[in-house]
Amino acid sequence: MAEYAALPFDAEVILAGVRPWVTCESPSWDVAAVEHMLAIAAADMAAMGARIRSLPTEYGRAGCVLADFGPETHAPGILILSHLDTVHPLGSLAGAVPWRRDGDKAHGPGLFDMKSGAYLALEALRQLSTAGISPKLPVRVMMTGDEESGSVPARPRIEAQARAEKYVLVPEGAQPNGHLVTGRLPSARFRIFLHGRPSHALLQKEEGTSSILAMATLLQRIEAMTDGETALTASIIQAGQAVSSVPLTCMAEVVCVAPDDDKLDAIEKRIRAMATELPGIRPEIDRKTHRPTWWPGLKDRQLADLATKLGRGIGLDLEFDMLAGGSDGNFTGAIGVPTLDGLGPVGADAHQLSEHIFVSSIVPRGRLLAGLIAELE
User: Fold this and answer.
1) Candidates 3.40.630.10, 2.115.10.20, 1.10.10.10, 3.40.640.10; correct CATH number of 2-185+293-375?
2) Domain 187-291, what fold?
3) pLDDT per position as a tens digit, 259-278
4) Do the Cβ atoms of 261 and 292 come closer than 8 Å?
């Protein structure tokens, strides 16, 4: 296993390679932008000799790209699972989140979450090919375009492909402690509509019921449910349809992470109950997305053990976490396919203007990915 420590990964070359991916801004809600990014990745993988299959858009979200590397076969193998959509809106690169280097930190929209990890997985395949090291199993790469919006159309595709494989590797960025991920807590996104009663805001204010005020009350109660094991955050709010009018409808989206699926169900039930208590308000509540609990099983731990052995050979002392942050690894781990997540470069501040990776982590994480791809059987 020591041969992977000698693979000549070059962090500067990898940064130069991933930069066109990062400068192709691809927010989840802009299908054309995400499809452009998927096309760039597909072209890069085709140039490596992969057989490419594009899966079309559904439900107003971007599609997926599936690439097969190596000899053509239907045998179960390794699925490398990544997403190429980001949370950052178009214009971030020229505005609040420019591509820049600050010592050991590299910044850019979606660099940490998770374009650097997706690109690094391809670099691991290039390095193995150049070194004449053939993986023991078929390798397939799936890149999706809707993870940040909940993976609603991608989920059945991800689960179907994962069931056909022996292992799933997810090169999501690693947290600052560098730990790999062998389990994830459940999460959900709730969309809440509150319908009040409109009226003239100046002449007949008392005849109206403000949906905005009702939502403000409800969201304070929802966020107050946050405790040591559960977090609820209102992330989007939209309201108002005319000047000088008591607003009829207010919409909010709330994201939630919980210790298990039962607690998530109980939270949803409580939100619905609180909404019905608002006077003069008709609520509509929908669970838009749900990532199930991925409890680490024996085969997940065996996969982690292999990573630990490989890590020692390349100078990494690896540890493992069960994280609250969601990923598409929730789906594959929850259906029992051995999954290892958090394999991308170490970084911090996902979804923030200060999102970054540590350049010094690129080479060892690339070598770890290469070792896993080569050694799994």
Assistant:
1) 3.40.630.10
2) Alpha-Beta Plaits (3.30.70)
3) 999 999 999 999 999 999 99
4) yes
